[in-house]
């Protein structure tokens, strides 16, 4: 019996030993990971640079918060900018843009927010990704300093509104629309009838006003007269390198270059912290569900048609 | 207390688990507060071993420090509550079937029967070290050790109530079956509720 007891004690000792070994093993693996982490990234405390990412189409979300309670669209970007501006640690902001533009109002909201932040002596630097055209460029122009990659597609300064003429298709399918309207322009840009010359003039005026505003804002943001860039502001797109020649971008460089420049302009040390927005895995899951569910609702036509941005005036690049 | 620990008598409980589960019941027949402490020790040890084993198999982050410092307390509480509830259910069932009620003994049996699961860590650690399908072997060993624990619990219960092993097995698993059915309907209701909220 005593022998058996000793065998069991030995077995228990083996288990305890393996538990200690496992804890040491896990701790060492974690420390190795953390060392790698520190060599790649700056410490996350003290004065530093905040990062805001603007990816995809710029537009207001169809509702203030999504069904799962998460802010999205231009509102989320403005909110993130406001949070950074209020944060006493933030001395500079880098805005990473990879967007073909979007709706006029959403773009202007972000533009105005950046201008407001600049007034608070917070340096704002733009870094363009694959594309920062039209509304994407509009936002970049609000920043103190603009970086683009050599091959970034940018420019496309202009305003566009499009409406399909589906009369032929309607006739073919035998669809007729019953329209009761309060004014003669209420169904302007409808796809079931031809646009009249008066309507065309009205829309053109709208486009011209928005275009003038675009030029003025670029001039204000970049601090250059309109005459210096108006000849390129005809909707054409160009590379980042050409944009530097046209003085629409300050320098060709990467995202890391823009971080370094932001630190330099804000007089921060090279190893200053970089504050990225970090989402918890749960938030990531909710956002993914939100995106999937939102897509399903729109695809299934469960939202009324007028909530979908159809025939809307845009600062956007449409290849 | 120190004398008792030095005498190594407490080792007998675990020895019986491995060598002769039926005899464990005879030891537990004697009313003694030590049974509950031995049961608690078994639960604590198994919980810590399970936390370390799962931490070895998932991406290792600093969350491990929380799970090993606070998480094990929570896990012990959850395990103990589960054991108490299950022992209560079993006791009700046995009394209904005409057997004697003995919640204290059932709690000790269920707690001590978990003891073989301490072998999970050394067995999985070998496969983790050689990186040879550690997740698969973790599942396999968890299943085998779970069956072993069940066997010990059923064997002890059959000895306790002097009944046939298979009858004891059916009666022991019966509450689990009802919990499974109840759980299924609860999940079903939650799904309907969530779908209704989203639509």
Question: Can you offer a commentary on this structure?
Answer:
The complex is a heterodimer of chains A (319) and B (199). Chain A is of the alpha/beta class and 319 residues long. Chain A has one domain: 2-enoyl-CoA Hydratase, Chain A, domain 1 (Alpha-Beta Complex). Helix content of chain A is 45%, strand content 18%. In chain A, the strands form two sheets. In chain A, strands 1, 4, 6, 7, 8, 9, 10 and 11 form an eight-stranded mixed sheet that branches. In chain A, α2 packs parallel to α3. The longest helix of chain A is centred in the N-terminal third of the chain and has 39 residues. Chain A is extended and about 105 Å long. Chain B is mainly alpha-helical and 199 residues long. Chain B has one domain. Helices cover 82% and strands 0% of the residues of chain B. Chain B is built from nine helices and no strands. The longest helix of chain B is centred in the middle third of the chain and has 34 residues. The mean pLDDT of chain B is 87. The chains are: A alpha/beta (319), B mainly alpha (199). The interface between A and B is medium-sized, with 21 and 25 residues.
Proportion of helical residues of chain A:
40-55%
**Rounded radius of gyration of chain B (Å):** 19 Å
Shape of chain B: globular
The residue-averaged pLDDT of chain A reads 82
Report a brief summary of the structure.
The complex is a heterodimer of chains A (319) and B (199). With 319 residues, chain A is α/β, with parallel strands linked by helices. Helices cover 45% and strands 18% of the residues of chain A.
Tell me the layout of helices and strands.
The complex is a heterodimer of chains A (319) and B (199).
Chain A lengths: L1 H39 L7 E8 L4 E6 L5 E2 H14 L3 E10 L1 E3 H16 L3 E11 L1 H7 L3 E4 L4 E3 L11 H7 L23 H26 L14 E2 L1 H6 L5 E2 L2 H11 L7 E3 L5 H19 L14 E3 L3
Parallel strand pairs in A: 1-4, 1-11, 4-6, 6-7, 6-8, 7-10
Antiparallel strand pairs in A: 5-12, 8-9
Helix pairs in contact in A: 2-3, 3-4
Chain B lengths: L1 H5 L4 H9 L1 H9 L3 H25 L5 H34 L6 H10 L7 H10 L4 H27 L4 H34 L1
């Amino acid at each position: 019996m005593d022998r058996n007891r000793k065998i069991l004690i030995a077995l228990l000792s083996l288990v305890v030993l393996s538990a200690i070994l496992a804890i040491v093993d896990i701790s060492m693996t974690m420390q190795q990971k953390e060392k790698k982490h520190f060599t790649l990234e700056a410490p996350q405390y003290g004065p530093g640079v905040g990062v805001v990412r603007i990816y995809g189409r710029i537009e207001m979300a169809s509702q203030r918060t999504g069904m799962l309670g998460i802010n999205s669209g231009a509102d989320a970007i403005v909110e993130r900018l406001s949070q950074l501006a209020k944060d006493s640690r933030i001395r500079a902001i880098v805005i990473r843009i990879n967007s073909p533009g979007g709706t006029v109002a959403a773009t202007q909201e972000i533009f105005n927010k950046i201008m407001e932040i600049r007034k608070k002596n917070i340096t704002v630097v733009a870094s363009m990704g694959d594309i920062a055209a039209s509304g994407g460029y509009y936002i970049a122009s609000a920043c103190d300093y603009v970086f683009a990659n050599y091959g970034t597609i940018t420019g496309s300064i202009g305003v566009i509104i499009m409406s399909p003429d589906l009369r032929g298709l309607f006739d073919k399918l035998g669809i007729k629309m019953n329209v009761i309207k309060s004014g003669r322009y209420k169904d302007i840009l409808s796809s079931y009838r031809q646009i009249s010359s008066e309507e065309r003039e009205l829309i053109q005026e709208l486009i011209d006003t928005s275009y003038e505003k675009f030029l003025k804002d670029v001039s204000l943001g970049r601090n250059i007269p309109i005459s210096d860039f108006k000849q390129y502001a005809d909707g054409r797109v160009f590379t980042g390198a050409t944009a530097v020649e046209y003085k629409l971008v300050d320098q060709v460089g990467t995202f890391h270059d823009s971080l370094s420049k932001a630190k330099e302009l804000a007089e921060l040390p090279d190893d200053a912290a970089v504050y990225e927005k970090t989402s918890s895995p749960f938030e990531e899951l909710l956002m993914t569900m939100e995106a999937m569910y939102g897509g399903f609702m729109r695809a299934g036509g469960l939202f009324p048609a007028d909530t979908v941005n159809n025939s809307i005036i845009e600062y956007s690049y449409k290849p | 207390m120190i004398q008792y620990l030095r005498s190594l008598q407490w080792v007998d409980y675990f020895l019986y688990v491995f060598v002769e589960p039926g005899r464990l019941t005879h030891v537990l027949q004697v009313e003694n507060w030590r049974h509950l402490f031995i049961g608690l020790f078994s639960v604590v040890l198994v919980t810590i071993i399970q936390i370390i084993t799962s931490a070895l198999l998932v991406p290792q982050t600093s969350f491990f420090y929380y799970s090993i410092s606070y998480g094990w307390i929570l896990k012990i509480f959850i395990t103990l509550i589960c054991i108490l509830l299950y022992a209560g259910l079993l006791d009700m069932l046995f009394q209904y079937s005409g057997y004697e009620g003995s919640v204290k003994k059932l709690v000790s049996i269920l707690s001590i029967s978990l003891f073989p699961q301490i072998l999970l860590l050394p067995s999985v650690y070998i496969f983790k070290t050689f990186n040879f399908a550690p997740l698969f072997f973790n599942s396999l060993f968890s299943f085998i050790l779970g069956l072993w624990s069940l066997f010990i619990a059923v064997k002890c219960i059959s000895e306790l109530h002097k009944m046939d092993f298979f009858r004891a097995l059916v009666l022991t698993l019966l509450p689990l079956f009802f919990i499974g059915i109840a759980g299924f309907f609860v999940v079903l209701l939650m799904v309907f509720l969530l779908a209704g909220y989203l639509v």
